[in-house]
Amino acid sequence: MEDQKTLQLRLEIIESQKIQADYLKWKLISVATLVSISLGISGNDTNGEAEFLLCVVPFCCAYIDTVSLHVMMRIMTIGAYFKFRGCTYENYIDDARKTNKGSLRLENYALKGSSVIFNMLPIIFGVYKIIGFHDYSLGIALIAFGLLGIIFSCFLAKRFDSAVQNLAMKNLSP
Description:
mainly alpha
């Protein structure tokens, strides 16, 4: 019976990792779609109102990051449970995370780094709008939303790191 539960948790980790990869793909696709529509890259002539869609990019990143970090936290929780139960592999991975912090966090870096880069897009375009005297109000809105997106991404990263540290310190009794 215990082996069945262990197998079920292992399968949940695998499925969660697949979902995690899908979220990263959908983040790229959704941001690329928003940017192409708002900047008129699709070939359609926009009258400027579509440029406001760039303000949605930070919300898109925030939503996908929140859900993705939740999935990542679920994976970490199952791993912590296995570690508590004496799983040799989870103990090895935990030691590897402590000694070589970067190599096992590439997906986490991709998630956080892409959010910062994607949230810079509205800021850059907003600065362009202000400097070029094109549309001051749009420029301010784009800069504000981009900055809010970066702040929220940093907040999420801090909360996630804190949750992982708390999880590592807990005694997970079955």
